[in-house]
Amino acid sequence: MNTIITIGRQFGSGGHEIGCKLAEHFNIKCYDKELLTRAAKESGMCEEVLEHQDERPTGSFLYNLVLDTYSFGYNTASTYFDMPVSHRVFLAQFDTIKKIAEDGPCVIVGRCADYALQERKDVLNIFIYAEKEERIKRVMGRFKDITSEDKAWDMISKKDKQRKSYYDYYSSKKWGHVDTYDLSVDSSVLGIEGTVKLIIQFIEDFESKAK
Q: 0.90 cut: is pTM over it?
């Protein structure tokens, strides 16, 4: 196994679970929330701040104005610490993703990992989506305080909007669009296990062709 796998996912599609199962199959690490812990350690930022800002861009005009001014170019410590917290969180995660990739094959879930690693040739970018009914069912099973389908869908819609806004703002592509990824899979068609098997075959074919 020589491939780095990035996973974009709709909320409630099972993307995290699929990523973990892929990592287990190939005996490699899976980074989701674990990425925040490492980013906090390496950047010196508080992990609680990273968690609070995780995949949540600020949409205010003032934020966008300041962000555009810096254009991601932080060359001095003073410039870096003058940036909005959301911007610093993104940069911390961005740098950590690159370092994680240098360590070898792994699975990275979300956080614009495909964008951070776009210059590498050993990366497969996968997007997991699912039917509305399946997503609602999974969310209600995961969150016991979500007791109605309407509440579940409200949460799903909010999370997807956050992820799309975050990805579309920071990357040069579009979240969820088929041409952004190497493979997009509806996990509600084959189920979690079937989707994992499909992706495993895709990865193995990719590695065989690369030899």
A: no
